[in-house]
């Protein structure tokens, strides 16, 4: 399976959903980085690009990894260049897929699709009119926009096409989890040792992250950043050199920090909880265990559980 995502937390949470079901998973931060993992997720880092640039880097990612089933991981609230990246993927595939199946639902976080419209927390999204968004897409393939309000319904969507390998899947990590459950596991597994010095790095402005930060234990080391700060490397670098456990919240934040560390990819071992994956990266010869979390994911104690997970044997 090849997963192409437009931000790092998206690539990681989709890979984490596969790792939960025993698959060998890796996230790459560079389109031109290879890997033999059975599930390879690529962060194109294209959400902030222009639509044409996002399409270009998506097409390159697809072309570089032929022969794999393909999933375009899109945001469950429809942020980013959704239509442009899907069109680019279709054009870059070696052969036109027979079907393009679209369902960004992630019921565990209140993201659903009803009558072709994406809802978040029960409210329809202005950008979530899927039939309008995908009008005219994949003219030579069957376009299926699937509804799902529960995980059972999302599983039924996957089950309807589980035996068809000539499919382009388009969805969130919610969809990834149901795809993973129906694929044969590949004996994935990542060794993890307890982290002794852990830091939470946050750049997300989401109110849910703010609540999670306020409920961290008082002795937790927290570093709040503006990912655009040009002095960040000088201020954060010495701290990162001394840690062996990282909790990164916010996709852009995670990308900036891992770029700073020179990480071009990491193995994904599983999930702390649904939508919150963990993995390991090698940095200057040492192993760093990390957890990534999208800003809006989790309950008030999710960050605390992530810290406790990294520290436990």
Helix/strand layout:
Blueprint (H helix, E strand, L loop, with lengths): L1 E4 L2 H13 L4 E4 L10 E5 L7 H14 L5 E4 L8 H11 L6 E5 L7 E4 L2 E4 L2 E7 H4 L8 E4 L5 H10 L6 E5 L1 H10 L15 E5 L4 H8 L6 E4 L7 H9 L4 E5 L1 H11 L3 E9 L2 E8 L2 E8 L8 H10 L2
Parallel strand pairs: 1-3, 1-4, 2-3, 4-10, 5-9, 5-10, 11-12, 11-13, 13-16
Antiparallel strand pairs: 2-14, 6-7, 7-8, 14-15, 15-16
Describe the structure in your own words.
The structure is a single chain. This protein has two domains: 181 residues, Putative sugar-binding, N-terminal domain (Rossmann fold, 3-Layer(aba) Sandwich); 114 residues, Molybdenum Cofactor Biosythetic Enzyme, Chain A (3-Layer(aba) Sandwich). The model has no long low-confidence stretch (mean pLDDT 95). 32% of the residues lie in helices and 27% in strands. It contains ten helices and 16 strands. A hairpin with a 2-residue loop joins β6 and β7. The protein is globular. α1 packs parallel to α6, α2 runs parallel beside α3 and α5 packs across α6. The chain is an alpha/beta fold and 313 residues long. The strands form two sheets. A 13-stranded mixed β-sheet has the order 9-5-10-4-1-3-2-14-15-16-13-11-12, sandwiched between helices. It has a three-stranded antiparallel β-sheet with strand order 6-7-8.
């Amino acid at each position: 399976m090849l997963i192409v995502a437009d931000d790092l937390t998206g690539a990681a949470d989709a890979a984490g959903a596969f790792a939960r079901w025993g698959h060998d998973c890796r996230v790459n931060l560079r389109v031109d980085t290879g890997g033999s993992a059975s599930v390879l997720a690529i962060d194109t880092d294209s959400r902030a690009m222009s639509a044409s640039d996002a399409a270009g880097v998506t097409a390159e990612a697809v072309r570089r990894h032929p022969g794999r089933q393909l999933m375009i991981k899109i945001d469950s609230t429809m942020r980013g260049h959704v239509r442009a990246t899907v069109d680019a993927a279709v054009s870059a595939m070696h052969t036109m897929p027979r079907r393009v199946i679209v369902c960004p639902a992630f019921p565990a976080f209140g993201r659903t699709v009803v009558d072709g419209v994406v809802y978040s927390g029960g409210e329809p999204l202005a950008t979530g009119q899927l039939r309008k968004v995908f009008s005219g897409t994949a003219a030579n393939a069957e376009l299926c926009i699937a509804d799902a309000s529960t995980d059972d319904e999302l599983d039924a969507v996957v089950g309807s096409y589980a035996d068809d390998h000539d499919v382009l899947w388009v969805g969130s990590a919610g969809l990834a989890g149901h795809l993973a459950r129906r694929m044969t596991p590949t004996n994935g597994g990542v060794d993890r040792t307890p982290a002794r010095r852990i830091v939470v790095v946050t750049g997300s402005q989401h109110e849910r992250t703010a609540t999670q930060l306020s409920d961290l234990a008082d002795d937790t080391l927290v570093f709040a950043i503006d990912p655009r700060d040009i002095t960040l490397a000088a201020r954060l670098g010495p701290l990162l050199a001394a840690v062996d456990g990282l909790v990164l919240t916010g996709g852009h934040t995670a990308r900036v920090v891992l770029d700073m560390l020179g990480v071009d990819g990491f193995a994904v071992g599983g999930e702390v909880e649904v939508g919150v994956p963990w993995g390991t990266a090698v940095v200057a010869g040492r192993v760093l265990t990390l957890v990534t979390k999208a800003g809006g994911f989790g309950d008030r104690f999710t960050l605390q559980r992530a810290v406790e997970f990294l520290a436990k044997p």
